[in-house]
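Assemble and predict.
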Amino acid sequence: MAYKHTATSDGVYAQLKEQILHLELPPGAAISEIETAEKYSISRTPVRDAFKRLEREGLLEIRPHIGTFISLIDLNAVSDVLYIREVLEFSVLSDLSRMYDKSQDLRIRLILQAQKELLDSDMPIEELSRAFINSDNEFHTALFDAAGKKNIIKFLYEYNSQYERFRTFINFNGKDDLTKLYEAHVEIWNCITTQDLDGLNACINHHLYDGFSSSSDVISKCPEYFTKIR
Amino acid sequence: MAYKHTATSDGVYAQLKEQILHLELPPGAAISEIETAEKYSISRTPVRDAFKRLEREGLLEIRPHIGTFISLIDLNAVSDVLYIREVLEFSVLSDLSRMYDKSQDLRIRLILQAQKELLDSDMPIEELSRAFINSDNEFHTALFDAAGKKNIIKFLYEYNSQYERFRTFINFNGKDDLTKLYEAHVEIWNCITTQDLDGLNACINHHLYDGFSSSSDVISKCPEYFTKIR
DNA sequence: TGTCAATGACTTGCATACCAGAAAATAAAA
DNA sequence: TTTTATTTTCTGGTATGCAAGTCATTGACA
């Protein structure tokens, strides 16, 4: 992993992944190797490499001799990622709370400030949502980093493609959800700096699951995007 | 993932992975596509697929136009996996402890019994070690399953190739370590059935880290197998 | 009209040839 | 002898053709 791959294969991988996560390539849609190759004016080989990689991340479903399809959003996988995040995040942030010193405060506050400014801006909701999700990831990464657990969140991010896609799906809903996220961030940071572990636990729980539970009506708008529930 | 791939690519992947995890292909060794292809009497294409997959799991390092090498054992990655396992396992087993009912007891005790019999047998240490590690994984899988969190441990297993390899490395050491693992298993199960959460926490901690801390002298026997420590 | 087999148009998996980059070996020059 | 070009020979990356599997259409036959 320390050494670069060729840009061709990596390029189509990155572009396809972004399109899938942003639902521009909708769940269930067919996508063929040769078609993609022609679109990018390259051969099938690097496309195949990218496809295989995306399949392992659960974003594509390759059915040999039949076709390749954008995978449906697997709510079970999303639920699993949420559980893992909840547990790991509480553990790491508890550690951080115990070792917290004021020198870390500025960096976090800057991120929070940026999020507030995003919410006050008048971007179109799609653009705002993307920008805010990026900032959200930045916030959580900064927290893990402050706790000396940078690698742990890298691990999480490699596995949460399904969750990212789900989040994109429900966040197009409106600005209110994003505002709630921001407020939760502020509260989480307050709990950490005041070493309120019980409050922290409750916060993380809410923060992660909130959008999830209030989303069943959103899901029903596009049921064909999702796998059947367990 | 629900659909099979072709057997050719999957086959070499599985075989190579086993050889790497069992250290038959030692860390740092070179391994070439064409050589491997000839060995299995297939073309480079399925070999390349397998290589790419192993690279993403951190078991190979592909350096374009230079060569492909069995990756060194990354103790940082091992340490991260241990942390994640500790946190997740304590959380899941705490849940299990709260919801424990006696119908689950038999299955676990059978696994423990099998482990005891393994230890009492007179297998050669290498074979014993492999068999015990398999049984160890079975034990932990059964626990997660009993807690209704089967997917969570699948998640873990996909990420712990580095850890598995490390374990193979230190367990060739002798029977004592395996005996300790067995005793820890018994104690963990006792803690769960008696709902002793504090004891459980301590157990898991010991269980995971024990072999790790006592292994620095073992590591020094083959320093060329490991990456530099953080 | 209804049934079933043949056919053709797709798909991805695999084999092979060629390309580009890197390193080592060789040859030429100081 | 030492140093510097140059060439040779590795490597993996890419392009492409063929093989094999799947499905929908079609046409023959009952």
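Chain B touches chain A at residues 1-6, 49, 52-53, 55-56, 58, 61-64, 76-77, 80, 83-84, 87-88, 91, 149, 151-152, 155, 159 (CB under 8 Å).
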